[in-house]
Amino acid sequence: MGNRIISKESIELGDRIRNRREEIHMTQETLAEKAKISPNTVSRIEGGQVAMSIRTFRKLMEALGVDANELLGNETLDSMETETLRQTFNRARELRQRDRDIVAQAMKALVDELEKNT
What we know:
- By secondary structure, the protein is mainly alpha-helical.
- The protein folds into 2 domains: 1-75, lambda repressor-like DNA-binding domains (434 Repressor (Amino-terminal Domain)), CATH 1.10.260.40; 77-118.
- It contains 7 helices and no strands.
- The longest helix has 20 residues, at 97-116.
- It is elongated, with a radius of gyration of 17 Å.
């Protein structure tokens, strides 16, 4: 069986990776291309059938636009806050770099002002 593993944790991790990929309307092939791994590897990871290296995990995080805590199921914000932030960041990610910079500056200014008033 080689690297095949089937554990509750690997299945749950694979489910979170698949759910995130589907949430952002990405195919396994596109994820594989962005993460620079094979589509077969993506399929096996999503199925909980293979252990992955930290390097592969990091590539998947970056390609999916999430942090490790989210993929590991350790979300620190409640799910509504997380979903709202994720949707906002995904929309901003679609913008041109110049516009993303403007959004980031505006968000920073808003947060700074709100912190001053609390």
